[in-house]
Design a protein that fits this description.
- This protein is of the alpha/beta class.
- 52% of the residues lie in helices and 12% in strands.
- It has nine helices and five strands; from the N terminus they run βαβααααββαααβα.
- A five-stranded parallel β-sheet has the order 2-3-1-4-5, with helices on both faces.
- α3 packs antiparallel against α5.
- The longest helix is centred in the middle third of the chain and has 29 residues, at 78-106.
- The two termini are 16 Å apart.
Length: 201
């Protein structure tokens, strides 16, 4: 089983790349953000610790953590953000390692993708067989975030500044996909990378 990490800055188009891969290759894909949401659910590893750290005001009536309220708290405080990451990231890693092991034991999975902006910082380079960096020019990313998510210029800059530089992303990766232009250009790069693999549908 080939284990591949997909990383890149906000607005680089990682979701578009993974949607294409999902549609055209026999694979399993895990998005770290979705896993992070799952481990915050009531009864899961991070719920109690996050509630104790951030206060019960982040909870909805049913006991689930309200993502917007949590985000407002942590992004206003770099120290809180670090503490939250110290709770969530190890739990996500444990979950993913378990899923990787299950996939290996079950067999039949030949491409296993993990996607997250923080894969390099969180040490996944030592876990994956390959790290792919999805690159897009900063002006392209800003325009995408404004158009698709309605992010303000201030919010976009704040997120970008909190992430790795392009040089650091490239240094920590084995393969770069330029997704600055039309999606088909990026898809050609994916096909070129995976053309020797036998598990394409």
């Amino acid at each position: 089983m080939r284990l591949i990490g997909i990383t890149g800055g906000v607005g680089a188009g990682k979701s578009t790349i993974l949607e294409y891969i999902q549609a055209h290759y026999l694979c399993r894909i895990y998005l770290a953000d979705q896993v992070a949401h799952a481990v915050r659910e009531p009864g899961q590893p991070c719920h109690e610790a996050l509630t104790a750290l951030l206060g019960r005001e982040i909870l909805e009536e049913d006991g689930r953590i309200h993502r917007g309220r949590m985000a407002e708290k942590i992004f206003a405080s770099p120290d809180l953000l670090k503490q939250v990451n110290a709770i969530v990231h190890p739990a996500v890693r444990v979950f993913l390692l378990g899923e990787i092991e299950k996939a290996r034991q079950e067999g039949g999975v030949e491409l296993f993708f993990i996607e997250a902006a923080l894969l390099i910082e969180c040490g996944y380079r030592e876990i994956v067989d390959e790290m792919w960096y999805i690159y897009a020019a900063e002006d392209v990313r800003r325009e995408r975030l404004l158009r698709s998510r309605g992010y303000s210029a201030e919010k976009t800059e704040r997120i970008m500044e909190s992430q790795l530089t392009e040089e650091a992303f490239r240094a920590g990766s084995d393969f770069v996909i330029d997704n600055s232009g039309a999606p088909e250009a990026a898809f050609r790069q994916i096909r070129g990378k995976l053309e020797g693999y036998t598990w394409r549908q």
